[in-house]
Amino acid sequence: MIYNMTNGPSTLYSNLLRRNTNAELQNRLAQAEQELATGVQSDIYASLGASASEALALNAALDRDAAQVTANTLLGGRFDSMSRALGTIRESVQPAFDLAVANSTVGGSTGSGLQLQARVALDALIGQANATHAGLALFSGSASDTRSLTPWDQTSTSSGETPGAAIGALLAQGMGTGVEVTARIAEMDALFDNADGSFDALFDTGGGSAVTVNIGDGETLRLDVQANDPAFRDVLQGLAMLAATDAQEISDPSAYADWVGAATARLASGMEGLLDSQVRLDAGSARIDAANTRMQDRALVYSTRVSDLIGVDSYQAATEITALETQLQASYAVTARLSQLSFLNYMG
């Protein structure tokens, strides 16, 4: 008898076919296990097709908003630090202001402490004005890498002299009469008016300008509270007038009242201006918080949509894994049985 040896595939081909089938099943099983572990489709673009562009756009928007929220958080921290610093300045200046008001005329019972109290407040103001947040000077505007104000007894790099020495020399021209006091007040006004940049030079403010920042969705915010603002200059002038000289040494009662009265008026104006600046900073901080809340809410919506697009149903993935494992085990079992077959088993 002659057997037909050409019916069906060869043993070698059958082995290769089963091997390829097993390899494909193993790959599909690995992908299914990955999808179950990550909750994301293993081949997003193949799965989504035309919808892949939507997923890309949403992910780009999520990344952009996340970066903006991070930047806003840093900016909001700076606004809050500036507001707290202004509050501390006002609290530090208030005792000197109260003392000046109480000693507006010669012979006040607490007049002897006025110069010392003004100096304490002056040092506190300059210290707070030179505070930093995340390495950036709070009140230097765009020149955030420079100190906002030169301390009273330190040399200004711009003017080459200390603020205390410069103002002391100005007052040394005479404070004994009403005419002299009026002249000194005018000179102090001219210095602190900063029309010619003399204040910036004396206190070495760095000359920074206001900064406009984007807080998301095209909304902008101005960071424009600086140490050379009129409010700062008014408070500094009032304190400098009281700290640079002992007002009790002005023998003319009218001249004394003019000097202390002018200093008190500058303090009152400056304190009001600092309060306005603090209110603006708090309002800016609230706008930053609102912008972050808006973007975080939007991120939740976008993330949900992205999850709907690229996510994998865990139950479906687990079911597919079970089916693939069963299929692979069956294939292995068939392969093992076939490998045990021998032509000799049928002879006999």
TrEMBL record:
The yes or no answer to whether the keyword DNA damage is present is: no
From the UniProt record, list the coiled-coil ranges: 13-42
- Boundaries of each Flagellin C-terminal domain copy? 278-347
User: Mind listing the UniProt keywords for this protein, alphabetically?
Assistant: Cell projection, Cilium, Coiled coil, Flagellum
Q: Name one Pfam family in it.
A: Flagellin_C
Does the record's keyword annotation contain Heme? no
Which protein, by its recorded name, is this? Flagellar hook-associated protein 3 FlgL
UniProt source species: Marinovum algicola
